[in-house]
Structures are given as C-alpha cells and as structure tokens.
Amino acid sequence: MIAKDAARRRIFLMRHGSVTYFDADGRPHPPDTVPLNAQGRDQADAAGRLFASANIRFDRVIVSGLERTVETAQRALTAAGQSLALQHDADLREIGGGKLSAIPDPELRQAFVGAMDGVVNLDTRFLGGETVGALMDRVMPRVDALRADPDWDVVLLVLHGGVNRAVLSYLLTGQKQFIGGLAQAPACVNAIDVGEGRHDVSVRLINHAPLDQLHTSTRKTTMEALYEQYLKFRKGTSHVA
User: Fold this and answer.
1) Predicted TM-score (pTM) above 0.90
2) Which one of 76, 88, 89, 230 is least enclosed by Cβ atoms within 10 Å?
C-alpha cells in the first residue's frame, strides 16, 4: 500500500515488454502491430506480480493504444489481480520513424542511436522520421492534463521507450528538454510522485526491471541492439542486383 503522508500523487510509468522488431535476417516487422514475444509476456507478468506484492491499486490505466502497450497493461493488471478498462491516448504513441531504406549507409548508425543519446537536440529526427521536439510537443500537454485532473491518486501509464524518456525529462526539468540517456528496459517500472506545483516532482524509482533488477543481461542500449539486428538485413540486401 502506498503511504499518503504528503499531498502528492503517484505515477507508475512502464515501458511495454519485449517485442521482436526484426526477424532473424534483420527484416523489419510492422512496428505498430508487433505483439509481445515470449520474453515480453513474462516481463509484463512479473511487473504485475510486483504491483500485487506491494498491494498497489490503480485508479486509472493509460496506454498508447499500440498493441504492445495494450498487451503489457492487460497482462500486468491480470497478474496484479485487478480489472480496469484501459484508456487509450494516441498522443502517447512512440516517436515515429521514417523509411529505413532511405537512410544512407554512412548515416545509419547515428540515425538509430542519435535520438536516444545524451541531451538530444530537439531538431533530431528519429530514424529519419519524427523530430524529438515534435514528440515533446504532443507528450507535454498530456502530462499537464493528467496532473490537472483531480480524479485519481495512483495511475499506471504503459508506454514506450522514447515516450517514457519524454515524460521523465519533462517532469524532471519542467522544460521542453529530452534526456536520451534515461534508459528504459522492457517492462521496466518508474515511480514518480507529483504535487500541485509545477516543480513539485519526486522521482522515486527509474528503470526497475523485475526480471533483471541489476541489469546484468546487457550493456547495449535498445537502439544499439536494434541497429545490429537491422544491419544484417541491410548488408544482406546491399549486394543484391
């Protein structure tokens, strides 16, 4: 049970569980419809058990509407022993990439890792698509609207790696700033307390992965791993006549 010893409310912010964005040859799957893989389902279940173990009860659950966030939220809620209708908010969808085949070889690695590296320039395009600034422009009003709504005490947001960084960056700085280095493992849990004042924000937990709590499974970033997977496909097609 979460203590109510201060005039603050609790946001639990999750990333969706693992998905398979590329097949074994590096060929991309449609990102808007890709479901959780077996590991992702296990991760979502584990997050739900974590909430159950602390007797966490949600007043509201918000997802982006993309299949991987919906499935993660549903599995987490089931494992937590709760039944709530999911609220879909398309403004919280993942930052949109462009056409990978249009990115020249010399620019490919930077296109994958550049938008999630350090404090990111707002004009930076994610995989040649949407800019980081455009992502912030649609995420920040949704964060403000959530904080202005008095009808919840504990909320669960199940979103995406880039969107979670945008939410955390905005809450931490109070500005239109994007901190790409805020790593978000699959099905990780972040906990943030927010008060009435704009800067009354206390980050309690960041990037807690229930099945890999000390993050020993890899030192690669998500985008580094995806770059390596896609590179197999790019190399395999570059010599085809």
Assistant:
1) yes
2) 88
